[in-house]
What we know:
- The chain is α/β, with parallel strands linked by helices.
- The chain has six helices and eleven strands.
- It has helices at 25-35, 54-70, 85-95, 117-129, 162-173, 195-208, and strands at residues 14-17, 42-47, 76-81, 105-109, 133-138, 150-154, 182-189, 213-219, 237-239, 255-257, 262-265.
Amino acid sequence: ISEDTEEKTWRPHPLVLSGSPTRRWHLIEFASSITQERGILTIATVLTSQNVRAEKKSGMEGDIREYMAKRGVQGLVRVISAPDSFEGAKRMVDYYGLGALVPNTIILGDSENLELREKYCDMIRYFYQLKRNVVIIHDNKEKHFGERKTIDVWWGGLKGNGGLMILLTYLLQSSVRWHDADVTIKMVVKDEKAIPGIGDNLSDIMRNIRIEAKTELIVSKGRDCRSGRFSCSRTNFRMIKRALPHSPPFAAQLFTCSVLPCFTNMPEYQSRKILDYAP
């Protein structure tokens, strides 16, 4: 989508780097929840081999479509081959699209393999340079998304990624799977003196956006609150600002929303005016 696209016309067009859907279904479920016929969902798989016949790729695409259909998810499927998964993901994001319509939100899993950390961070930087939103979801293998009853958003205001956080929360809450979820917008303040002013401002913002949410202000008292570990341990989904380790200077711009599933996103130019979003 061109850079002159108005923010109020923004629609999610996720590209999910899922690999095997049976192993990473949580990625597809999240993408499907925020799309809900508002945009185009694409599921991508990278085969780490250069000698894969077209017939095999086509067969795999058919199998994935069938698996998705059985679970009530509709979307496009693409299978490509590349020397490694990181290079394949870059190619997919760089070249894939339907005419002028290209994926604006990349959804993928996290990586805890230290040997792959450099390649992983380089791939995320590459997506960001292409002006794509990036969502990284860490799945809790025991609970997954749980009962889908609570969403906590650790928020720093509308600037930067703040607009995108609220937009994704709105899309998630308006989905069939999450429509009963209670949303809490949490902000960390330095001391109790800041609570009245920030509280009033936060209440005004919540009244102007189309999302049902409670608000909670938390005094840091010198604690590092970026991880959100001292609260909300029982929530089903938690968004938190956090940087990937060992990836300067990009780390300062990375945004992590974590939860039982952990979720990371980065802003796209189109997410600045969240208040104008019209679903």
